[in-house]
């Protein structure tokens, strides 16, 4: 029994060390994302100033991606600190409170989405051994006690139009730029109607013309073969083969 207790304590010490390393790496990983977020927001503002609303909306996806990851980092930092401070509770996972279980599940889910924090993958293995397979499976899937906000920040749809509009409006307000989205959906729909049906129409016309051409060629060939004299045995140079002519004439006479 003492051996099992020492082994569990060793695992707890290991996961604590991994989470401390993850905290150190969080600071480093946040810097380039903060820079990319700032650059992306500046790009959106410039595109709006030039009147390129569609391109500004597309660029807003990068703003959302960096912003969501940075907010996820804040949640992960909170969970790491919580598990480090209450590491002793991990020695008895079945007696852990809901807040510890939420933190453990959050770390396990984030491990699959945060390539910037490789320590979380090793921590997930240790936590899975402690909390069991069912808990680990639900955590990886983002269900169970995993914080829905963390799931959204890491795996949510970055191309949601309403969220992109919200980001663009926010940046436009900061730069005193007026934006109007009322015509944007109509432009997209109009482009869709103008392109695809027109291409289909051209395709049908081309196919119809090809069919007509092939039909005409077929009729011409059929007419030529039908009008050809079966008794004509002239060679290409206009000469006649006497033996073949005699056989052919005999055949025609019998008809």
UniProtKB/TrEMBL annotation:
Residues 211-255 are annotated as: Disordered. One of its GO terms (biological process) is protein transport. Residues 233-243 have a biased composition (Polar residues). Belongs to the IST1 family. This is IST1-like protein. Gene3D superfamilies: Vacuolar protein sorting-associated protein Ist1. It holds the Pfam family Ist1. It comes from Setaria viridis. Residues 219-229 have a biased composition (Basic and acidic residues). The lineage of its organism: Eukaryota, Viridiplantae, Streptophyta, Embryophyta, Tracheophyta.
């Amino acid at each position: 029994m003492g051996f099992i207790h020492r082994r569990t304590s060793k695992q707890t010490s290991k996961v604590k060390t991994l989470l401390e390393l993850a905290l150190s790496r969080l600071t480093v990983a946040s810097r380039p994302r903060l820079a990319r977020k700032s650059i992306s927001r500046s790009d959106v503002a410039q595109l709006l100033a030039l009147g390129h609303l569609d391109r500004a909306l597309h660029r807003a996806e990068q703003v959302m991606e960096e912003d969501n990851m940075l907010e996820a980092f804040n949640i992960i930092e909170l969970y790491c600190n919580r598990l480090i401070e209450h590491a002793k509770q991990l020695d008895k996972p079945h007696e852990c409170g809901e807040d510890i279980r939420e933190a453990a599940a959050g770390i396990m889910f984030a491990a699959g989405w945060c390539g910037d924090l490789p320590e979380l993958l090793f921590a997930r293995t240790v936590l899975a051994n402690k909390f069991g397979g069912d808990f680990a499976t639900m955590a990886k899937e983002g269900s169970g006690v995993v914080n829905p906000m963390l799931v959204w920040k890491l795996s949510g749809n970055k191309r949601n139009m309403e969220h992109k509009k919200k980001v663009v409006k926010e940046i436009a307000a900061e730069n005193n730029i007026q934006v109007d989205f009322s015509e944007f959906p109509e432009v997209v729909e109009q482009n869709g109607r103008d392109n695809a049906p027109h291409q289909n129409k051209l395709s049908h016309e081309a196919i119809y013309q090809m069919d007509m051409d092939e039909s005409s060629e077929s009729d011409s060939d059929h007419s030529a073969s039908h009008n050809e004299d079966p008794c004509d045995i002239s060679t290409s140079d206009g000469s006649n083969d006497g033996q073949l002519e005699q056989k052919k004439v005999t055949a025609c006479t019998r008809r």
